[in-house]
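Reviewers of the previous submission asked for a worked example of the structure-prediction workflow described in the proposal, so we include one complete record here. The input consisted solely of the amino acid sequence. No template or homolog information was supplied to the procedure at any stage.
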Amino acid sequence: MKKLLTLFLVFVIFFLGLFFWWKNGLSAVNSADKTQKIFVIQKGEGVREIANKLKREGLIKDAVVFFIFVKKEGLDGKIQAGDFRLSPSMTAFDIAQTLTHGTLDVWVTIPEGKREITSRKNLQLFGRLINKVCLQIKLGYQKKRLSL
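From that input alone, the workflow returned the following structure tokens.
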């Protein structure tokens, strides 16, 4: 009976330790540090490499927890290459979501045969629209039409 109780206590302590390790690994590195860093993911980088880079740059607490979390949630195939704005105040969940929802990159295609001045005017118009959308997001979404 004593061996059974000892074995039970060992399992409880082990699983409690595992639980706290997991919760700690998913939490933010420093919830007070709102500074943002540009984090770059190269095309073809794996989740393990990304997790190690995030750990090295001080954006996550534990690379193993992040790796397991991303695999468990099925986000490994959804992470995109590119530049991302991340902060030490973000949790591992927030970082994983950010890495799957687009980069800071903006791709522009200029159709063949268009005059340079027309393309330049269109890009300037697009830039103004993007600035207004970003301002709206920063100030809080309001239901009204954006005017250029």
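Residues 141-148 have pLDDT under 50 and may be disordered. We consider this example representative of the routine output the project will generate in years two and three.
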